[in-house]
Amino acid sequence: MLGGVAVRGIIELQMWQVAVAYIFIVILLFIVRARGIPREKEILVASLRMTLQLVLTGYILAYVFTNSHPLYTLLAIAIMEAFAVYNIYKRVKTPLSPRLREIIAVSMVTGTLASLFYFLLVVVRISPWYDPRYVIPIAGMLIGNSMTGISLGLSRLVDGMRTQQHLVEAALMLGATPGAASKQIVNASFDAAILPTINSMVGMGIVFLPGMMTGQILSGVSPLTAIEYQIAIMLGILGCVALTVVMFVQLGYKTFFNEECQLDLQ
Amino acid sequence: MFCLRGVGYRDILDIERLEIPEGKVTCIVGESGSGKTTLLRLLNKLISYDNGDIVYKGHSLKDIDSVELRRRVVMLPQTPAIFPGTVWDDLLIGLVFSEKPLVGEKKLLEIMKMVHLDKGFDEDAEKLSGGEKQRLALGRVLLLDPEAFLLDEPSSALDEDTEEVVIGGLVKYVRERGKTVVMVTHSKQVARSFSDKIVEISHGRVVSCWEG
Ligand SMILES: Nc1ncnc2c1ncn2[C@@H]1O[C@H](COP(=O)(O)OP(=O)(O)OP(=O)(O)O)[C@@H](O)[C@H]1O
Ligand SMILES: [Mg+2]
């Protein structure tokens, strides 16, 4: 073999081969410097973070996979959930009320856990239930996509309540319940939240091969098996995003009203 | 009908005593920023007063469910609200919001005529002129047939002649049905010709009351 070692038909990359891939970053740095685009620092930091985080995750996963234990799996899920919730808080520019923060965390955690265990135990039927090889990557995909969904829905909800304040109040004046008065905004948030997932399904297999499938094919799995998994996981992701987002918007809009059914934007 | 005692809201409104008679037209006048809109919002429970009490038909507003109150005492905002959709949708949306049975074309035509709006039902409501939007919003409120109307400058965007006709028609309509109207207006003409009671507000206080 020239520089690569074949294991189960897959070429394992040597350190120096990975290093050669960094040439892409060098080229990019070259371009931005030549054009005077002030993005060098971000590119460097992003490459560094990506490398460090992945190396670290690689070692942790290797350890967890060989020493599989329910606690490790649960811990990994907990860390992902916490990271996702923290990321949602950070992404929205406007300050969030404590009740809204609570609702974000609750919908995120219950929605993703419910879909995760349904997917693992009813669809894939893994055993033992905590098998980290399945649980961790699938949890990652569900949580990651729900995080994006809730972030989008959240900004749309907060923006909508602010920019359409007069319409919401006008509806209240006519005797609307808070739910009816904010129905359009709630629907628009739900829509904004699930649209990226739906769009990604449309282009799937033609415009791009999804990451999971690519990974499986690279590691020697038959494309047909990979596709079965990909279809199942896509449906799982859509269901999970829809579930977390619908919980979030249904509970979330209420935090913009007080107990006297008055619009309360603080 | 409404009875206010020592009502304070932040440092905006401070009303020692005010009665709004049932089945009558009461006009609220006063300079810009004096607190007229704030007063209507209090009566509609869109905001809550800090002290004192407002009593509606013998019950403190605090004891009446907000949504139920707003269905009995409907408010027309100062800037007319237009919801996305056609003129038809926009007229009916108040009935949808307040969960009342919808009405047919005949009733809608009657209301359109009353507010002097000569537009097709399927026109885009967003495209109406400012004054047309105002009349559309007024028509929507009339359809709701509540016990009392709180109208915040319902004719501010209308020319004097249209104002006369629209407000005149409105007052006739509500008088025939024994409804209560509280109307904020900048027009001395409107206040003089149509009101049973005129309340003048300045810097959040009632400075004069006139009853005819
Ligand atoms: N939510 C609020 N927060 C702070 N101040 C407010 C609020 N609402 C109204 N005000 C202030 O209260 C005062 C009275 O406002 P209001 O809208 O009641 O006046 P108005 O008599 O209706 O005036 P106009 O004739 O111009 O409509 C104004 O000085 C206004 O800035
Ligand atoms: Mg006003």
Give structural notes.
The complex is a heterodimer of chains A (266) and B (212). With 266 residues, chain A is mostly helical. Chain A has two domains: 1-67; 70-256, no CATH class. Chain A contains eleven helices and two strands; from the N terminus they run ββααααααααααα. Chain A has a two-stranded antiparallel ribbon. In chain A, a hairpin with a 2-residue loop joins strand 1 and strand 2. In chain A, helix 2 runs antiparallel to helix 3. The longest helix of chain A has 32 residues, at 132-163. The radius of gyration of chain A is 22 Å and the shape is globular. The relative contact order of chain A is 0.11. Chain B is of the alpha/beta class. Chain B has one domain: P-loop containing nucleotide triphosphate hydrolases (Rossmann fold, 3-Layer(aba) Sandwich), CATH 3.40.50.300. Chain B contains seven helices and ten strands. Chain B has helices at residues 36-43, 66-72, 87-97, 105-114, 130-143, 160-176, 188-194, and strands at 2-9, 13-20, 25-29, 51-56, 59-60, 73-76, 148-152, 180-184, 197-202, 205-211. Chain B has a six-stranded mixed beta sheet, sandwiched between helices. In chain B, strands 2-1-4-5 form a four-stranded antiparallel beta sheet, with helices on one face. The chains are: A mainly alpha (266), B alpha/beta (212). Chain A binds chain B through residues 166-167, 169-177, 180-181, 184, 260-263, and chain B through 44-48, 66-67, 70-71, 74-77, 79, 81, 83-84, 93-94, 96-99, 140-141, 144. Magnesium ion is lined by residues 36-37, 78, 152 of chain B.
**Overall CATH class of chain B:** Alpha Beta
Rg of chain A (CA only): 22 Å
Q: What compounds are bound to the protein?
A: adenosine-5'-triphosphate, magnesium ion
* Cα distance spanning the termini of chain B: 17 Å
Number of E strands of chain B: 10
Shape of chain B: globular
Rounded to an integer in angstroms, the radius of gyration calculated over CA atoms of chain B is 17 Å
Number of helices of chain A: 11
Q: Give the strand content of chain A.
A: under 5%
Shape of chain A: globular
Largest sheet of chain A: 2 strands, antiparallel
Structural class by sheet pairing and helices of chain B? alpha/beta
